[in-house]
Structure formats: C-alpha cells, structure tokens
Amino acid sequence: MASGEELTAQLAGICGPEYVLTHPDALATYRSDGLEHYRQTPLAAVLPGSGEEVRQAVRACFEAGVPWVARGSGTGLSGGALPVAEGVLIVLARLRRILSVELEDARVVVEPGVTNLSISRVVAPTHFYPPDPSSQIVCSIGGNIAENSGGAHCFKYGFTTNYVAALELVLSDGTVVGLDRDEPGYDLLGAFVGSEGTLGIATKITLRVAPAPEDVRTLLAFFEDTGSAGEAVTGIVSAGIVPGAIEMMDRLSIRAAEEATGAGYRLDVGAALIVELDGPQEECETRFEHVKRLCSDAGAVEVRVAKSADERELIWKARKAAFAAMGRLSPAYFVQDGVIPRTRLSEVLRRIDALSAEYGLSVANVFHAGDGNLHPLVCYDAAREGEPERAEQLAGQIISACVEEGGSITGEHGVGVDKKAQMPAMFSEADLEAFHRLRCAFDPHGLANPGKVMPTPRLCGEVPGPYREHPLERAGVATRL
Ligand SMILES: Cc1cc2nc3c(=O)[nH]c(=O)nc-3n(C[C@H](O)[C@H](O)[C@H](O)COP(=O)(O)OP(=O)(O)OC[C@H]3O[C@@H](n4cnc5c(N)ncnc54)[C@H](O)[C@@H]3O)c2cc1C
Asked: 39-58 as b/e, with b when 16 or more CB fall inside 10 Å?
C-alpha cells in the first residue's frame, strides 16, 4: 500500500471514515478558499471532531512526513487555506463548542471552528466581541486568529490580537502546548496571531470580550466624491474623536450594495461615509453633534442619522454586503487589501483611477477609512481572453502603489499565496530570514502550511517519515537550508 493510502486509513481510524474525504467530488469544496483563483486538490481532507483528534491527525502526518494545511470556514481572501497537493487539509469546522463563558472575567473559551458572530451573541447583551470582519456570520475564530482579522470596529477597539488571552496549540509534530498572554518572557502568543497557519493549529482559544457601550450613534453621510469624504475623515480624526467605526464606500460599491440590499443609499453621489460613535451617552451625544458638523463642513450633501436599531442595521447591511454584492455588477472580481497612511487617501485613489483607465477594468473601493485600510474590488470577466491576468496585474499595481505611498501589502486579509511575491517590497532579506527562523522554531520540518507567506519557501530540517523529500522540494519550489 502506498504511504498516502496508509495515511488516509490511519486518519480514518482516528476521526472515523466518514470524516476523511479522498474522492475528487467530495474534495471539490475544499480546493480553494475565498480566493477561488488559486485551486489545488489535496491528498485528503480530514474533519476531526476534537482537539485530541487534531493532535492525532497532525502526528500521523508528521510520522508520514506529509504536509498539511489547517482550514476554518474557508472565507480567507489570500489563499491561506489553499491545500497542498500530496498534503492533508485539516478542516476545523466540527470543533464549534463554546467551552465556557466567564463574564465576571470578560472571557470566553471556545473551540476554533466557532464563528466570529457566535462570540458576540453568547456574551450579549452585557458584552460584545469587537473584531468584526464583514464575513463574521461564517468565518471561524481559528481563521481570525491565523489572519489577525480586523473589521469595521477595529479602528477604536483594535484587532484580533488584542483579544486573544490564551491558546492551546498543536505543533507540527503533534505536541500540544499552551501560550498565555499574561506569562512572562517572549510574546510567542503574539507571534502566533497572524501566522496564517504556518506555526501550528489553535485547538482551544481564550478570548477577551468588551463591555457593551452605554450608547451607540450611527450616521450615514453622502458626498459628491471620495476626496470630500476623505476630508471629513481627516477632520474627525484630527479633532481627537475616535469613532467606533468609520467606513467609506465609493460610487460603484454603493451601487452594488444598494442593488443587493435596498438599504436606501443614494445613487447620485460619489461616496458614502458611515460614522458610528459609542461610549457613555453624554459623551456620544456631544461628539455626535461635532461629527455631523465636520461632515457638513467637508461638503456632505446629506447627513442621515439612524433613529432606531433597525435603521442602524440597514446602514450596516449595505456596507457588510459590499464585497459579495459586487457579483451583481461584474461576473468576477478580486478583493484587494492594502493599507495607506490616511493622509495619502486622495493621492492613492487618483492612482487607482488612473490604473483602472490604463487596464480598462472597473475598480470599486470600500475602505476602513480610519485605519487607511483599502479594499479595492477589481472587476473582470473570466470569459474574456486575458482579462483575469490583466485584473491580477492591476491588483498587484494597486498594492505597489500602497507600498510606495508608505503603506502595507495587507491590512487584514493576510499574505497567503496571493501576496507572498510582494513580501520583498516590504521586507529586507534579513527580515525574511528572521521570519523563517521563527517559523522553523515552531515547525522544523516545514510541514505546516508550506508555500505560504514566504516568497521562496525554505525548509529547515529533514522531512520525517518514508518520503524524506518534501513535496515542495520535489516540485522545485522550495530550497533547503
Ligand atoms: C465577504 C467577505 C468579507 C470579508 N471581510 C473581512 C473583514 O472585514 N476583515 C477581515 O479581516 N477579513 C475579512 N474577510 C476575510 C476572511 O473572512 C478572514 O480572513 C477570516 O479570518 C478567515 O477565517 P476562516 O475561518 O474562513 O479561515 P480560512 O479561510 O479557513 O483560513 C484562513 C487561514 O487561517 C488558517 N487557519 C484556520 N484555522 C486555523 C486554526 N485553528 N489554527 C491555525 N490556523 C488556522 C488557515 O490555514 C489559513 O491560513 C472577508 C472574507 C469574505 C469572503
């Protein structure tokens, strides 16, 4: 029997045969994450039902010398959960128990497959979980940790990393370790958050939650163009106001979101700005009036205030639907994720417009405006020859423009496979070498999500098990140190 078959038989013994998928039809769902452009069929997908089954599955892969990739809900947008050919995909979707809710300590302990929104639901109404990706109904907490995910409320409240208190991890040889934020010494937990599945699998997660604010006020302001909406953002931030959220959409994304949701957004404008303030009631009231004035001063053509929770929800519905809604206007699109200094917004938008004209492809823009985190949506039609490639090039040019303006290649979607070629634009060879050494300290054999994040995959030690040669090495895409 070939090693691959031996391994899948062993995995079936650990998790139950119904939770080990090997048929190409059954594997079709798992060939890509949210970035469908990249596809790969793994040797097998395994769905463990407990942390112990994850440990045993990882150990079995280690003993066979077979690489593996962790997968949460598969909503990632950088190809982080893209399987490795000849590798095993470890799907954590069955691990969705909420293990404890300790509101006196403002903590919850969960398994990695629990969805982001479930955390806020389980601690409501006294508390909430602030990092709120637009995919929060579906995406898993394990995936959020691996990507250090953000969302509309991260400008004020911080990203996932600010809410992870402790982790139980399975390392690539099947060892189980615990990391605790409060422990003295090196911040290894900080290193794990955002490591995109390359350092191990989080199997038990302790999260901090925040007390629910006394008051929440939301407004929707419309502007003739993104430049004047950008001025309002600068005015608000310069006035020392820190909104709970401050989000911008341009003309094309408003159109797509409005068509999808019927939320009542104006279609005769060039930009919409959502500003949400939260906190003590009196402070909210005073600052809200100030924000309204600042929007008007920046040239808002209309400022609408949500008068009820339903109206507030409708405003957010359009924003949260913006990515998916683009499918109404374009058969296909790339969601880009770049960061720029807030003050460079109009310059970068001008460059995006120029690139859009040069490549002959539409680009819609959705921003976490407070953080300077842009999400250009590059539209294309895969049926037109050469268009997907042009769209990919255009998306790459947008990211280069972000870096040139002093920003970053990713704000929250991670590097994955999509951005790894752009890592040298931000990091020196010495930086990359330091990342690599950290990775090898957790995963000496390069079995955890190989081929992701680093521009040229490098392998550290001998591959254990019968293969001896790493599949990436065999394919000529990895070098051995
Ligand atoms: C419509 C839409 C809107 C989105 N909006 C946002 C947004 O506002 N903000 C934002 O930050 N992102 C957003 N995303 C991107 C995506 O939802 C996030 O990156 C999310 O955290 C991915 O979670 P997941 O469970 O789907 O992870 P997956 O896609 O399954 O995996 C992502 C990465 O995490 C690793 N991983 C998964 N589970 C574990 C684990 N338990 N231990 C170790 N590694 C693990 C995988 O190997 C992979 O590298 C959006 C995506 C979509 C499709």
From this structure: ebebbbbbbbeebebbbbbb
